[in-house]
User: Fold Spore coat protein, CotS family from Lihuaxuella thermophila.
Amino acid sequence: MSNGLKEVAAWTGEENLSDLLHHHYGIRLKGAEPVRGVLKLQTDEGPFVLKRVRSGEKDRWKWVAELARHVEMSGCEEIRIPQPLFTASGRLYFHGYRFPYVLLPWLEGKPLSFNRADDWRRASRALARFHQSTVGFKPGSSGRRYDCTGKWLAEWEHVCQQLDIFRLAAKWTPNPTEADQSWLQTASYISGLMENLLEYYQKIDGDEPCQKSIPSGKCCHNRLHRHNLLADDEGWIQFVDWNQAVLDIRLRDLAQWLTYAYGRTGSQQILTDVLKSYQEVAPLEEGEYSLLYARMLFPEKLFHLLRRVYQKQDISIHSAAPDIQKAVQTEEKKAGLLRGYTAAVKEEFHITIPKLDWLH
Assistant:
């Protein structure tokens, strides 16, 4: 085994990866290097991405492949979703010694710094183009388990129950850790926030604007941050890392993007830039602004982290304290985010939306 292939084996734990790739795809592995959290493969057929398929992701990759074909056929030449390659046996993944894997074409591009307002504007227009390109998409049966459309209220009610269980787990453990203490310090605040969120959603009759939003796109990338956006050779912004994509209305992505933008900049002007740039491509309906407010209220990042610590236990509770504290800080910034958002919507679009007075 060459030195390069030895490194691949060390990174993946797959000593026979070269043989597996040749067997399943008919390609010869020449070398590899870790790039932005994935493994870039150099082969006799050009560069590819090798990505581990985690538990429960096999069906997701099936409908992502369907989505990639739909976007390609939509006529939107600016957006390209890397399509997983089929193996010789017609599957979208293959089993290694340690894990199953999916093989994707390598997408050449440069990361954006997001130190300039223009980067936020370009990315927001690209997000709108992606959502537009998904209009009319109808996934096969593989996509049903990832369909979150119209299920926000039920999801949030379940989250309230889960958060209470996590609070009790931290409270009654005989040997509390720093992570337990960090969570307990904010648990009451987060529980109160969730109660207010449920009341707010019902106040705005959130199901109605949700249904009206469906024709504007029903697929979300669901993992929007600067490491998953690249500027390709033609200058178009492309999205990578689709293994958390879901079927949902576009506001899920847009709320996540606004939250990320404010978290990075603390700027109301950036919120305005994001909203304006997105709507240069895909205008919002008036009722969608209140639904965006509700989605940004949801402590999504903190909840998923707590679930990994207390339920899935794939993050050690003995090392989770810094991550919990960081997620809590994100929630503490929500007041500024929501104040900035409501002000931007009123000043720029002349729309006044209901708000939680205690956050303003």
Remarks:
- The two ends are 63 Å apart (CA to CA).
- The chain has two domains: 3-106, 117-359.
